[in-house]
Amino acid sequence: MTIKIYGVPISTCTARATACLYEKGVDFELVLINFFGGEHKQPAFLSKNPFGQIPALEDGDLTLFESRAITAYVAEKFKEPGTDLIRHNNLKEAALVKVWIQVESQSFDPAITPIVLEYVLAPMKGKTADQAVIDANLVKLEKVLDVYESRLSSTKYLAGDFYSLADLHHYPYTHYFMTTPWASLVNDRPHVKAWWEDISSRPSYKKMAEAIASG
């Protein structure tokens, strides 16, 4: 049975989930949700995610929500095809993947998300971006990227010298951030820049970016 993802390509969380499926080479069906029309707040979708947030995954009789839970499930279920995203056979490396997954969700994401929401999403909703919010979070993001620069000076990827789910989770928001006037925060840090150029050259990223561009 084909996995179904309920969401919309331009959604960062949908993009994170689909990028993982692309990386593992798993076929799936994207069931489009009318996000701007509020379909995710209607009973049919709320039965899949009671919090009314996209995406949701259906795999047989299993329904999941929260994009990072979905990627963890995909990486665990589909161990063999594609890259081993969670380092099944190495306890220490698997632990480091978990550490940097947490860093992405607890430090990187809270800093970069408001910037992208204000610069990219607000105009899509006919609103004016709040520069004060952007400026405050640019300061936070700089501090996070300083840590990344230090880490990536000694390892090729965040968890070690191997690509993992920790790197993939950065795809969606960094994709949008690099279209903003503040992309220099990445480009001015040579190790962060090299890391981003590396992971954004992967076929899974390119497929995700193409889906976003197509709407």
Structure report:
- With 215 residues, the protein is an alpha+beta fold.
- It has a 4-stranded mixed sheet, with helices on one face.
- Strand 1, helix 1 and strand 2 form a beta-alpha-beta unit.
- It is globular and about 45 Å long.
Radius of gyration equals 17 Å
Strand order of the largest sheet: 2-1-3-4
Secondary-structure element pattern, one letter each? EHEHEEHHHHHHHH
Terminal CA distance reads: 26 Å
Which structural class fits the helix and strand makeup? alpha+beta
Q: Name the average pLDDT.
A: 95
Tell me about the largest β-sheet: 4 strands, mixed
Per-chain topology:
Layout: E1 3-7, H1 12-24, E2 28-32, H2 43-46, E3 56-59, E4 62-65, H3 67-77, H4 91-124, H5 131-152, H6 165-168, H7 171-177, H8 184-187, H9 190-199, H10 203-214
Parallel strand pairs: 1-2
Antiparallel strand pairs: 1-3, 3-4
List keywords for this structure.
215 residues, alpha+beta, 4-stranded mixed beta sheet, 10 helices, 4 strands, globular
Summarize the structure.
Helix content is 56%, strand content 8%.
